[in-house]
């Protein structure tokens, strides 16, 4: 490997984006974020005795007040808001929810209003109105009404069925019951009758009806287990814990009825994992956080009963706040299609105007002087031309295809079902099928340029296994016997001596087991004791088995490892934790838990041991632990060396450390901790500052190494996608060495790859930026030289960059909040100078970002490590912005949600980190390897089908409509139609719709196996080769030539001719039937030529459409229907009379041949001289036999 290695860089916390204040969902504004309340750290039940002062401060930020058991409290004027004019309504929502849109009275007007907001539908409504004006129209009203009603009807039925389902769900939910305090007793009450401030009782397996404050439960210390599957898709249990004071005093029914606490908290919002508030009761205040709130949509598990107080109800609950608007994604073809429809509108107006001018001229030259054309209306030629303009708008309206959008939606829906039904994307181990969660993006799957992938759980399995460790500078985990000698063959350690051991755990270092059993190494005992005590795992017993509920796979693996090595976490309460240490059960007082978050990258626990000593145990990322170690850590170098070895083996590492704390130091610190935990503003910042004071001078114990194996098929998938010219970027929070080694494991990097690191490209980018500044405003020649590539030569390159370097390069350093200082007013000149500096800085930043994207895109692969969720989304946004390329983001965890929502297409993997990524995604499946089939097969097929459908759809409409224009030259530009009205009505609905729909659903140029075998076939979608403005105008030209032939061949054949029986076939109605029949043959046989994959259904649709045309035409031209509806069916006997003339059949055959033979010749010529990739593949396969 050729490597240009940079020195190790640590993650500068000052430059790291603050992910804690990142919006949870898209409908959260920056103003909300600026004003949001900091979250209180869980597990703290401290009392603030300065209640009055605290309440005054809190009122400024927490304006939501809830009083228990006091319905009159909410009738105060300050809790009312004006809804309309002078009408006022309580700001507290009722608990009844309404997700439906319509009721029996509003359905028709509202649905029609929504549908006519779409430009195409409104356009046809205007046409219908114009057709009702006799002076304008030459076309019957039903020619527009029937297709419009069909489109509106299909959409209305779909909307109605969806809304009926919502009605049923709403009624089912609103009529559920639970127990609520009424008149001093718990009584069964419907959910819709629950109000804010009510005290409710919930039993095991019951759904939570509102967002409630947990007061007490049947479990020790008022723990309550909940399942959040309906909220975030996760099935693992979460635990909530009530305040100690409510747990102690609010257990009986009478105490619940007498409870009069007041909660002041933040306004309703959509942040599922955030809550800040305070409970005021009995002249004391108690901090509240998210761990004391049970959210609507969750389910009570493993808890017999619990009591709670309703804080948010109905539409104010967090789950309802999150059901709002989501980011709407549209495909590239969608945008192009809209522009093409606008182009057709413009062409329609220009043609109508030109024909109207022609009619005006004709009236002046011929119409006024021809007495037999007099219509008893003395209108000027210009006015007649004006009326004809609108007449031609009506006649040529089929240029704008009303059924286009409905047909596109049907095709996309069908393609989505094909993805859902694909058994080759079904993950049987977890019973997880592939799922298209949107139906609007399928063809975009065939145009991807860049894939942004998470590592853990996406490329890897995210099933963590404790493999190795380093304790006191000594590495453990190799194949060794009890004496410490290396073995050539692994022998699994026998854990039968440990009654709590898990039978699934495998370990091969017998020497470590002997060291633990001997008890001679106190550092080893501390190491595993730390793993057993420093965590947030919950334990429960079922069927005599000890089970753990962990928030993350890493934490679960570490606690499980400690359990197997003899240090077993048994149970916890609010203030204690019980551990079995080599068979001896001990309970420790937990004095404080210093939680993990993405800024801190560590967690600590302070415990009082049996002898009264106070000790802090801490585990975290090496970069943050090293900064806080005592200067005299003798084993630091040995541990760093072990960490490098573990990282080279692609193992995930954490450092473990501790420190002893004196009683006096703890008392001083604890006072600050209590003050910070009940702070009413900036609580997070206050707690972080206090945590920093105690987490220092740490003694390093060692490090853990956890294995997270690659998923099956990852290297093959990445290799195949790379051959399809798709660039893959890996964005991960792991160490640089770990990410780099995973890159080699999954073949993203090879031995021939030249790797560039952060400091290498920083110098390149800085030089480029300075040159650009120096050459600003210089000649075009200079600016051209600035676009030259960053790297010379064609070597295989990859970029590996850390999050800190990313911030440094992109000028994204976090600005610290400045303290308020008194300043003199600036002069106008100073203001102008400062504004100029800001503009210059912004321009430099934008230029630097563009340079970075250009440089990174010259690399075959990019790995960004140590990046935050916000940085992941920023990288995706930069590539979207500067490369104008189609992007796909794939991940499996909550930290990937922002990236998934930012990309053009988001893919979620149903992994070990819950379902947040899946619920935010556009597509989901069980394993990374299925991505190749989603893109190279379904994406490619969808793109080809949609492009073929659109090209043909425009072609057949132009071929159909432009015949009217050629006919205008022979009817005085009078807006007379060339076809029968019923033919115009049914052309797009019945005669030509099914074959092209089936091509859009079923066509494939090569099979799925060949699509995977030859990834280069994918490139045509990336280059937009199959549908663009060039293809659109070729379709227009093809349609125009077809319309010329369809009109002029019958016209020439009819001119001065006589039928076989002496009757003239050259009347208008016979001509219309001949032209229409020729058109139906041509367009249906043309789709046959365009079909690459023939099935019985395709053949039936083509020939069935032709047969259907003739069947309906003969019926509509019969005498019987004319007798019933004389004004609607005026072509009586035309088809039977005309089509029995062999002369007319020969005319149609000639028209069809002239239309289709050049197409056949052109296809053969192109396939021979300039064959496409798929043509080459098919030719090779036919040659091989």
Percent in helix: 40-55%
Question: Structural class, from secondary structure content?
Answer: alpha+beta
Characterize the overall form: globular
* End-to-end CA span: 42 Å
Work out the strand percent: 15-25%
- Give the oligomeric state of the chains in this entry, treating copies of one chain as homo and distinct chains as hetero: single chain
Detail the poorly predicted runs.
1-60, 779-785, 814-822
Q: Can you count the helices? A: 41
As a whole number of angstroms, the C-alpha radius of gyration is: 37 Å
Give the spatial strand order of the biggest sheet: 1-31-32-33-30-18-34-35-36-17
Q: State the major sheet.
A: 10 strands, mixed
Q: Please report the total strand number as a whole number.
A: 36
Q: Residue-averaged pLDDT, rounded?
A: 83
Keywords:
45% helix; ten-stranded mixed β-sheet; 1185 residues; disordered N terminus
Description:
The protein is globular, with a radius of gyration of 37 Å. It is built from 41 helices and 36 strands. The longest helix is centred in the first third of the chain and has 34 residues, at 332-365. It is of the alpha+beta class. A hairpin with a 2-residue loop joins strand 5 (177-182) and strand 6 (185-190).
């Amino acid at each position: 490997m050729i490597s240009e290695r940079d020195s190790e860089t640590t993650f500068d916390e000052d430059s790291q984006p603050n992910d804690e204040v990142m919006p949870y969902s898209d409908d959260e504004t920056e103003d909300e974020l600026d004003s949001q309340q900091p979250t209180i750290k869980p597990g703290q039940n401290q009392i603030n005795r300065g209640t009055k002062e605290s309440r005054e401060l809190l009122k400024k930020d927490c304006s939501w007040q809830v009083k228990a058991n006091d319905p009159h409290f909410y009738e105060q004027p300050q809790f009312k808001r004006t809804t309309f004019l002078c009408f006022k309504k309580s700001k507290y929502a009722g608990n009844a929810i309404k997700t439906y849109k319509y009721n029996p009275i509003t359905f028709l007007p509202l649905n029609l209003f929504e549908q006519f907001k779409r430009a195409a539908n409104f356009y046809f409504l205007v046409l219908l109105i114009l057709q009702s004006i006799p002076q304008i129209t030459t076309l019957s009203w039903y020619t527009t009404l029937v297709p419009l009603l069909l489109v509106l009807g299909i959409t209305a039925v779909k909307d109605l069925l969806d809304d009926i389902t919502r009605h049923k769900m709403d009624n089912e939910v609103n009529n559920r019951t639970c127990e609520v305090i009424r008149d001093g007793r718990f009584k069964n009450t419907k959910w819709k009758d629950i109000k804010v401030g009510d005290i409710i009782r919930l039993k095991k397996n019951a759904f939570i009806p509102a967002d409630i404050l947990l007061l007490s439960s049947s479990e020790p210390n008022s723990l309550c287990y909940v399942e959040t599957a309906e909220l975030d898709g996760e099935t693992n249990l979460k635990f909530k814990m009530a305040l100690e004071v409510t747990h102690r005093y609010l257990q009986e029914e009478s105490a619940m009825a007498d409870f009069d606490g007041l909660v002041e908290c933040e306004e309703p919002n959509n942040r599922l994992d955030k809550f800040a508030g305070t409970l005021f009761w009995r002249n004391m205040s108690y901090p509240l956080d998210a761990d004391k709130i049970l959210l609507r949509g969750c389910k009570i598990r493993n808890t017999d009963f619990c009591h709670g107080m309703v804080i948010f109800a109905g539409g104010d609950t967090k789950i309802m706040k999150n059901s709002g608007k989501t980011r709407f994604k549209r495909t590239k073809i969608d945008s192009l299609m809209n522009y093409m429809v606008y182009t057709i509108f413009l062409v329609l107006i220009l043609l109508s105007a030109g024909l109207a001018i022609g009619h005006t001229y004709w009236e002046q030259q011929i119409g006024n002087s021809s007495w037999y054309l007099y219509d008893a209306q003395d209108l000027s030629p210009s006015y007649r031309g004006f009326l004809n303009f609108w007449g031609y708008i009506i006649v040529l309206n089929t240029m704008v295809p009303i059924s286009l959008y409905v047909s596109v939606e049907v095709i996309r829906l069908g393609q989505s079902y094909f993805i859902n039904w694909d058994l080759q994307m079904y993950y049987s181990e977890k019973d997880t099928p592939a799922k298209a969660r949107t139906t609007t993006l399928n063809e975009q799957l065939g145009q991807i340029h860049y894939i942004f992938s998470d590592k853990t759980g996406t490329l890897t399995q995210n099933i963590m296994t404790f493999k190795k460790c380093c304790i006191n500078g000594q590495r453990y985990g190799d194949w060794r016997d009890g004496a410490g000698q290396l073995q050539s063959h692994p022998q699994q350690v026998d854990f039968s001596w440990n009654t709590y051991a898990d039978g699934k755990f495998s370990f091969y270092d017998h020497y470590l087991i002997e060291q633990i059993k001997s008890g001679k190494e106190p550092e080893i005992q501390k190491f595993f004791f730390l793993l057993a005590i420093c965590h947030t795992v919950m334990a429960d017993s079922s069927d005599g088995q000890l089970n753990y509920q962990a928030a993350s796979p890493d934490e679960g693996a570490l606690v499980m490892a400690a359990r197997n090595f003899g240090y077993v976490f048994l149970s916890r309460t609010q203030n204690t934790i019980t551990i079995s240490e080599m068979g001896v059960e001990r309970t420790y007082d937990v004095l404080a838990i210093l939680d993990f978050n993405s800024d801190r990258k560590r967690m600590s626990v302070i415990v009082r041991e049996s002898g009264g000593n106070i000790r802090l145990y801490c585990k975290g990322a090496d970069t943050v632990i090293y900064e806080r170690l005592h200067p005299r850590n003798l084993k630091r170098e040995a541990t760093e060396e072990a960490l490098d070895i573990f990282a080279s083996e692609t193992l995930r590492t954490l450092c473990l450390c501790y420190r002893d704390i004196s009683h006096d130091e703890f008392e001083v610190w604890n006072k600050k901790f209590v003050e910070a935990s009940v702070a009413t503003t900036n609580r997070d910042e206050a707690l972080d500052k206090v945590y920093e004071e105690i987490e220092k001078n740490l003694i390093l114990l060692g490090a853990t190494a956890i294995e997270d194996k690659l998923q099956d098929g990852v290297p093959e998938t990445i290799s195949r996608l790379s051959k399809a010219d798709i660039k893959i970027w890996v964005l991960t929070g792991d160490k640089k060495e770990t990410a780099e080694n995973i890159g080699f494991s999954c073949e993203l990097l090879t031995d021939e790859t030249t790797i560039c690191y952060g400091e290498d490209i920083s110098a390149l980018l800085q030089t480029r930026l300075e040159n650009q500044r120096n050459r600003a405003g210089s000649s075009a020649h200079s600016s051209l030289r600035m676009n030259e590539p960053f790297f010379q030569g064609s070597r295989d390159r990859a970029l590996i960059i850390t999050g800190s370097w990313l911030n440094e390069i992109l000028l994204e350093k976090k600005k610290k909040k400045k303290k308020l200082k008194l300043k003199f007013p600036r002069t106008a000149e100073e203001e102008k100078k400062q504004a100029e500096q800001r503009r210059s800085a912004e321009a430099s930043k934008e230029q630097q970002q563009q340079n970075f994207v250009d440089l990174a895109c010259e690399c075959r692969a990019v790995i960004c490590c140590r990046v935050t969720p916000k940085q992941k989304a920023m990288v995706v946004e930069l590539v979207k912005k500067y490369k104008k390329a189609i992007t796909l983001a794939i991940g499996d965890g909550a930290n990937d949600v922002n990236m998934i929502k930012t990309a053009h297409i988001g893919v979620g993997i149903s992994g070990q980190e819950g379902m947040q990524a899946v619920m935010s995604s556009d597509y989901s499946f069980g394993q990374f390897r299925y991505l190749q089939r989603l893109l190279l097969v379904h994406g490619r097929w969808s793109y080809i089908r949609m492009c073929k459908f659109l090209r043909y759809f425009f072609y057949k409409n132009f071929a159909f409509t432009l015949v009217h224009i050629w006919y205008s030259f022979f009817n005085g530009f009078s807006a007379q139609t060339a076809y029968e009205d019923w033919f115009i009505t049914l052309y797009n609905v019945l005669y030509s719709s099914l074959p092209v729909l089936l091509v859009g659903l079923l066509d494939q140029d090569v099979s799925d196996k060949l699509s995977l075998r030859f990834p280069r076939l994918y490139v045509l979608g990336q280059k937009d080769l199959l549908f663009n403005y060039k293809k659109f105008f070729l379709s227009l030209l093809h349609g125009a030539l077809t319309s010329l032939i369809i009109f002029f061949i019958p016209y020439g054949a009819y001119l001065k001719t006589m039928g076989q029986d002496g009757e003239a076939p050259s009347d208008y109605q016979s001509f219309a039937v001949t032209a229409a029949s020729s058109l139906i043959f041509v367009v249906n046989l043309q789709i046959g030529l365009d079909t690459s994959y023939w099935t019985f259904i395709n053949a039936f649709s083509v020939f069935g459409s032709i047969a259907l045309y003739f069947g309906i035409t003969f019926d509509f031209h019969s005498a019987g229907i004319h007798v019933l509806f004389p004004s609607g069916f005026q072509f009586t006997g035309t088809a039977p009379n005309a089509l029995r003339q062999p002369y007319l059949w020969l005319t149609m055959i000639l028209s069809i041949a002239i239309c289709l033979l050049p197409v056949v010749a052109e296809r053969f010529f192109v396939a021979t001289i300039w064959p496409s990739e798929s043509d080459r593949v098919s030719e090779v396969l036919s040659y091989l036999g």
